[in-house]
Amino acid sequence: MGTQLLGTVHINREKHAVDRGEALRYMGMSDGGESQEVDDALRQRIEDSFTHCEECSTPAWTYRVFPLQETDEGLALVGTVLVLTGDDIRTHLHGAKYCAVMAATCGLANERELQIQSAKGTVEALAFDAAGSALAETTASACNAAIVEDAHEQGLFCNWRYSPGYGDLPLSLQPQILRILEAEKLLGITTTPAHLMVPTKSVTALVGLFDQPQEQRKSCQGCSLFQECTLRTKGHTCYQ
Ligand code: SF4
Fold first, then answer.
1. Burial annotation 71-98 (CB, 10 A radius, 16+ → b, else e)
2. N or C, which end of the chain has less CB nearby within 10 Å?
């Protein structure tokens, strides 16, 4: 791998739109409420909250790539104090040469407004919360797509992102992950004593970088990065 990727801090602060379909799904309205008792006035209140969430958010992401090393305690990220523990992450990163560590967030202004809205307990609060979750995932996917594209330029292939709290990868690794990304300084993300992130609408994840393609994918159909994939829009793919 060239020096462009390894250890370099990659950061982006592009605005993203709330994925309405995804936010409605988070609200339990997977069909947009059309088969439910949702009148036009309520639909408009929900849409206004989605827009309000976009206005209050400052989406940003960062990632860094580290070589991996097997140790007795777990998978160590070379050059850091972070050791990934648990069987599931070992399986996820089996055979990977490098690991991209990423964080994405909707930002502190979103968090402040989320707290205000949550105290009201209204449909607006529910919609704002759902919109923030959807926006955090979109921002994380944009970061993930950038990792895929950068890996592709180095002749490497990615697998899907894996977050602390999945399987037996402990949430207690969250502070160390944020520290090696300088995520507090760059993105304003901190953790509570229970290792939950603030802003709430934040995502951290680990992506393996491999010499060989990790899936027998033959098309982009069904790919979770389809919307955000910059590789695809440039006429390339991650699987050929
Ligand atoms: S499968 Fe297609 S859309 Fe998904 S990351 Fe690869 S190139 Fe991009």
1. eeebbbbeebebebbbeebeebbeebeb
2. C
Ligand 1 pocket, residues with Cβ under 6 angstroms: 148, 217, 220, 223, 225-226, 229, 231-232, 237-239
State the alpha helices, DSSP H only, in the chain: 20-26, 40-56, 87-92, 108-120, 123-153, 174-180, 183-187, 230-233
What's the whole-model pTM score?
0.91
54 φ/ψ angles, rounded to the nearest 5 degrees: -60, -40
Encoded tokens for 211:
């010499």
Q: How far apart are CA 144 and CA 207, in angstroms?
A: 8
Whole-number Å distance, alpha carbon 116 to ligand 1 midpoint, is 38
Q: Which fold has domain 10-214+223-233?
A: NADH Oxidase (3.40.109)
How remote is the CA of residue 144 from the centroid of ligand 1, in Å?
A: 10
Residue pLDDT tens, the chain, 240 long: 544 677 788 999 999 999 999 999 999 987 555 555 678 899 999 999 999 999 999 999 999 999 999 999 999 999 999 999 999 999 999 999 999 999 999 999 999 999 999 999 899 999 999 999 999 999 999 999 999 999 999 999 999 999 999 999 999 999 999 999 999 999 999 999 999 999 999 999 999 999 998 876 778 888 888 988 988 888 888 887
Domain boundaries, the chain: 10-214+223-233
